[in-house]
Amino acid sequence: MANTATIEINGQKQEFPLIEGTEKEVAIDIKALRAATGGFITLDPGYKNTGSCESGITFLDGEKGILRYRGYTIEELAEKADFLEVAFLLIFGELPTKEQLDKFHEDIKKNSIVDEDVKKILDAFPKAAHPMGVLSSLTSALTAFNPSSVDVDSEEDMYNSVVRILGKFPVLVAWAMRKKSGMPLDYGDKNLGYVENILKMMFKKPNEEYVQNKILVDALDKLLILHADHEQNCSTSTVRIVGSSHAGLFASISAGISALWGPLHGGANQAVLEMLEAIKEDGGDTKKYMAKAKDKADPFRLMGFGHRVYKNFDPRAKIIKVAADEVLGDLGIEDPILNIAKGLEQEALNDDYFVKRKLYPNVDFYSGIIYRAMEIPTDMFTVMFALGRLPGWIAQWREMRLRKEPIGRPRQLYTGATKRAFVSINKR
Ligand code: ACO
């Protein structure tokens, strides 16, 4: 294979190096494009063809349906590892030894106290506030309560900021949910595993003992692993670009939460359930909604179907579909919403429109179903996604800072008015 690409503009040829990744993907290195061509830029809205960085964290091949964290397949990690092990792997690059994992968990627990004054900020939010907005604000507020900046040249400083956010974030998640339901705020239980503690912090009632359900703990652990990283998606790119200005970790994560909130990204799991509920209210006619999804004059899209990069079955969706069936079976749940979901899934998998466009159910289609079975309120679904994605955001932020990447600053092609004279207000 040639090791350069040639671009010819107005008869002038310029060569640009090709860079090969460890999985044989090839990129044209256009860092010198403007200088070499006298100001030409590339235009790629939505960045479908643009690599923003080199990264050693997550590999995915959307055509083949492959997802690996630091070289380990998502299938193996979901089956054999737990969420905290995966978090360590993503952030620090290697699977932890038992001692490293124990220390990591201990350090996270030591950092799981949130300043009591944060409760005053939480109190000021209306009960109806969406928990993603609350979580993004409280995460940003943590910056003010932990103002010391991170010295990225100090491994210790980096480590401390990582365990600090991994300790405090689940507390904020639980508080955002408890505030909405009027439940007292809680700090959880240091004797529990990371995921067990999250469930207890979310669901413990003040007047009864909380009993752990192993099925739910395992299902949530798996869900969090499946969501833990997904290379340069919208929220992760946001975290990296905000961090590239040397904004701190909490501020960068807070921006990532806002990016994740949108219905085309993390908000899709909430949108899936809302769609299923709307179909039920409308009589449960899945065929009618399939027709709407295919009608180009109708803005309706089947939420939970399709993916920007997976043009094959999302490997996470395969794992989670099995988990969803297990959870529903084990809990003995019969829910008309879930029957509608299964109906839509079957129809879409056998429908020409969806098959031709490779629109398969994505991870959010099934995660919403499991969260509903766990009695997690619908508007908390995207918050649960953020909880899972946290290690990925941290890993990407850390990698970006350690590689000393330049500030993110894209170019644009200006298409507005050319120079014109100002018209005073009484003459307009
Ligand atoms: N329902 C109906 N038609 C769809 C759907 C859908 N869910 N998704 C895509 N299409 C159609 C488009 O209309 C288009 O048709 P055309 O070729 O006839 O014009 C074709 O499939 C390609 O669609 P694009 O929007 O170009 O695909 P893109 O890769 O840009 O978008 C996206 C991917 C945004 C995820 C899209 O499939 C979608 O909106 N899905 C529903 C929302 C959703 O589930 N989002 C979650 C993503 S997963 C995550 O964030 C973890």
Task: Report on this structure.
- GO terms for molecular function: citrate synthase activity.
- It catalyses: oxaloacetate + acetyl-CoA + H2O = citrate + CoA + H(+).
- Keywords: Acyltransferase, Transferase, Tricarboxylic acid cycle.
- Belongs to the citrate synthase family.
- Pathway: Carbohydrate metabolism; tricarboxylic acid cycle; isocitrate from oxaloacetate: step 1/2.
- The protein has 428 residues and is mainly alpha-helical.
- Helices cover 52% and strands 7% of the residues.
- It has 18 helices and six strands.
- It has helices spanning 33-37, 74-80, 83-92, 98-110, 118-124, 131-145, 155-181, 194-203, 214-227, 234-243, 249-261, 268-281, 286-294, 315-331, 336-349, 352-356, 363-373, 381-402; strands spanning 4-9, 12-20, 26-28, 58-61, 66-69, 72-73.
- The protein has a three-stranded antiparallel beta sheet with strand order 1-2-3.
- Strand 1 and strand 2 form a beta hairpin.
- It is globular.
- The N and C termini lie far apart (61 Å).
- The model has no long low-confidence stretch (mean pLDDT 93).
- Acetyl coenzyme *A (ACO) binds next to helix 17.
Write a brief caption for the model:
Pathway: Carbohydrate metabolism; tricarboxylic acid cycle; isocitrate from oxaloacetate: step 1/2. With 428 residues, this protein is mostly helical.
Distance between the termini: 61 Å
Figure out the total of helices: 18
Shape: globular
Strand content: 5-15%
Organism: Flavivirga aquimarina
Protein name: Citrate synthase
Keywords: Acyltransferase, Transferase, Tricarboxylic acid cycle
GO molecular function: citrate synthase activity
